[in-house]
Specification:
Length: 303
C-alpha cells in the first residue's frame, strides 16, 4: 500500500500545492486494501470512503512536470520508512533501486545522485515515470549488514519458483515486510524495466528479457557483462524470469563504497542514464544521450 509522503521538487506555488493535493488523492485511490490509519486520514479530509478500486495502472501517478513525489511504501521491521521518489509520467515506468543488501551502500548514494540529476534535467522525464528506491533495506543499511534485522536475505525472499526455504531466505516467500513492499510495488506499478544496484562483484548481470538493456548499460561504464545465473528467490528470478520484466543487476565493485557521491556519479551516472533512456524498440539509448560527456567525465556542473 502506498502512503503519501511529502512533495519533492522546487519552486512550488500555492496553486501547485492544490494541484499536487489532487494528485495525492489520485495516488491514494490506487491503494489496495483498507485505508491506512492516521497517516492517510490526517492528510485527506474527509477520510477516503472504501470503494471498489480498479487495479492501478501506470497512469496512477501524476507528479507535476519538473517535480517529484515522495511516496512511503511502508515500514521496515524496525519501523523505518521505506520510500520511493517518483518522477514524471508516461507509458514507461522504470524502477531503479538500491540497498536491498544493507552491506552494499554505494548504490544508495548513486540513486540519490540520479534523483538530483533528474531534478536538473526534466527533459529526461518525457514519456517516462521513474521510480527511485534508494533504501530497500533501511535496517540493514543502518547496521551495515546484508540481511534485514531478522537475519533474512531479502533478495532470496521473493516468490520465485526457485525459492529455497533455508533460514537465511526466510520461512516462506515474502515473509518479510521489506520484500512484501517491493512485491506490492511491482504488482501495482508494473515497471517496464528494473535496475537493482548491488556490490561487490564488479559486473552487470541480468535476468529476464534484459540482454539488450544490460548491453546498453555496460557500454556506458567499465563494468563487464557477466551472467551470474538465477539466484534462488531473488528479485531477478522473480521479476525477470517469472514476471518477464527486464531486470539488470548492477554489481558495483566493493571499492565503490570508498567513493564520494560525486565520484560515483562521474563513474556510473551515465550507465544509469542509459537505463533511463533505453528504447527497446530501436535499441537506441545512444541518441538520447547525445550532448552528455562520456562515462567517467560527467563534470560536477552537469550533475
Ligand atoms: Zn547484493
Amino acid at each position: 500500500m502506498f502512503h503519501r509522503g511529502s512533495h519533492g521538487g522546487a519552486g512550488r506555488t500555492a496553486v501547485g500545492c492544490r494541484i499536487a493535493l489532487a494528485g495525492a488523492c489520485l495516488v491514494l485511490s490506487g491503494c489496495r486494501g483498507p485505508g491506512g490509519p492516521a497517516y492517510e486520514q490526517s492528510y485527506m479530509s474527509p477520510p477516503a470512503r472504501e470503494v471498489e478500486r480498479p487495479r492501478p495502472g501506470p497512469a496512477r501517478y501524476t507528479p507535476l512536470a519538473g517535480r517529484s513525489e515522495e511516496v512511503e511504501l511502508g515500514r521496515s521491521v524496525q519501523g523505518r520508512p521505506i520510500s520511493c521518489q517518483v518522477f514524471g509520467q508516461g507509458p514507461e515506468t522504470i524502477l531503479i533501486m538500491a540497498g536491498i543488501h544493507g552491506s552494499e551502500p554505494a548504490g544508495t548514494s548513486l540513486v540519490r545522485e540520479l534523483a538530483g540529476y533528474l531534478v536538473r534535467h526534466p527533459e529526461l522525464l518525457d514519456g517516462r515515470r521513474i521510480i527511485l528506491l534508494p533504501e530497500a533495506n533501511p535496517d540493514g543499511l543502518v547496521a551495515g549488514r546484508r540481511f534485514n534485522v531478522r537475519g533474512v536475505d531479502l533478495n532470496r525472499n521473493f516468490p520465485a519458483s526457485n525459492f529455497a526455504a533455508v533460514s537465511r531466505h526466510g520461512p516462506r516467500p515474502l515473509s518479510e515486510p521489506e520484500s512484501r513492499l517491493l512485491d506490492s510495488l511491482l504488482e501495482q506499478h508494473r515497471p517496464t524495466r528494473i535496475v537493482s544496484l548491488h556490490q561487490p562483484l564488479n559486473c552487470i548481470d541480468w535476468d529476464g528479457p534484459a540482454d539488450r538493456l544490460a548491453a546498453a548499460m555496460a557500454a556506458d561504464c567499465d563494468l563487464p557483462l557477466r551472467k551470474l545465473g538465477a539466484q534462488p528467490g531473488s528479485l531477478g528470478s522473480y521479476a525477470g524470469n517469472m514476471l518477464g520484466i527486464p531486470i539488470v543487476t548492477v554489481e558495483l565493485p566493493g571499492s565503490a563504497s570508498r567513493l564520494s557521491p560525486a565520484e560515483l556519479w562521474a563513474r556510473y551516472g551515465r550507465m544509469l542514464l542509459a537505463a533511463v533512456v533505453f528504447d527497446e524498440r530501436e535499441n537506441a539509448a545512444k541518441p538520447a544521450l547525445r550532448g552528455l560527456p562520456p562515462a567517467g567525465l560527467l563534470p560536477a556542473q552537469a550533475r
